[in-house]
Give the backbone structure.
Amino acid sequence: MKGDKTISGFSKLSKRGKIKWIVENFFKDPENVMREMTSYWLKNEEQQKVLDGFSENTISNFTMPFSVAPNFVINGQPYCVPMVIEESSVVAAASSAAKYWMSRGGFTSTVLGVKKIGQFHFNFSGEKSRIEYVLEKHKAYFEKKLKPYTENMEKRGGGILGSEVRDFPEEPGYYQIQMTFDTCDSMGANFINTILEEFSTLFESKVKEEFSGLYYFETIMCILSNYTPECVVRASVSCPIADLGPIKGGVTPRQFAEKFAQAVRIAEIDPYRATTHNKGIYNGIDSVVLATGNDFRAIEAAGHTYASRDGQYRSLSHCLIEDDIFHFYMDVPLALGTVGGLTKLHPMAKRSLEMLGNPNAQELMQIIAAVGLAQNFAAVRSLVTTGIQKGHMKMHLSNVLNQLKATEQEFKLAVEHFSNKIVSHRSVKEFIDTLRNTKKA
Ligand code: MEV
């Protein structure tokens, strides 16, 4: 295609070469955009090189706010939690819930399991029992051959935990060997995928050896499963109902507790509400997952599958009122790492982990689950009392004012003016324009 905006050999161009091609083809103001894109490069060339290495065709950096939520007390330990998120009010909500629960016993987090899963998928023309026979008969051989890959993990207390053959009536002739792993402090994707690929070759050769041409065997794929229903952590808070107050919005602690519990029940029974409810939980979880260099897509995918484990998508959190005690808790799958991946490579991920006291993977699971629960508590508390727009609007106002490059004095006047008015980009702009015009006149 002549004249189209496609290119071959793009990845071979230098960083500047890539930007040059992009700005010339996709921007109206190439020189300015070139200057801007390069202005986001880090001054520290070594660090920039590390960042560039995380992905492909890297041309610049996309900056996000790095925030902190202090006053988290989790299992009796105080934490200042790093959060990377672009949405206003999330960090304020987490901090406020952390402080609220700090004086009511803090958060309790318990790891319920750490098992990860990987699958070797294949087609085989024989019965399931034949596969089970090969798996069992050559168990010691497979273990020995996989030793070079499992040895280090075993020294750390992990490794392969088990394997089972699975079949699916919907797909006759298709089987999988599902393996379970303990990957200790690493998220484990590389470990699991390496083992699976090695194992698949060993297994295929043993099947061929056992049945010499009697059955058809074909490997389909080997990959970990991001669904980790046995790598789960429980976070909870509880206190006597009488201690819940004072509550904003002029409600008694009991009225608040009952309304809160009903809001959670609604998210348990209605997938539309459950999705938004759980989204609020992931506002907290994802931002710490990102800050610590973990894989937020894997974490989200697992959580949403877990939320639908009985066939309907439901709230991850639950609320109970028993004997005048308010209990709010959540079980959530969190397959995290504190070694490997980006955790020590990304300069800020390293600092995030340091801020958290260099936790191991289980401790990080406990912290992140507590932040998810705090976020959920803050969101539902606002929803059933004052509504969320008030808080959001405050942040929205400051974002718009920053965009309009408002001075300190303009900021002050705008905050005063909008304290009882609806904030929109247009209304703020009109207000600032009027201020500026009056000043000129
Ligand atoms: C907004 O990012 C999150 C909330 O919508 C969560 C919720 O509705 O529970 C406030």
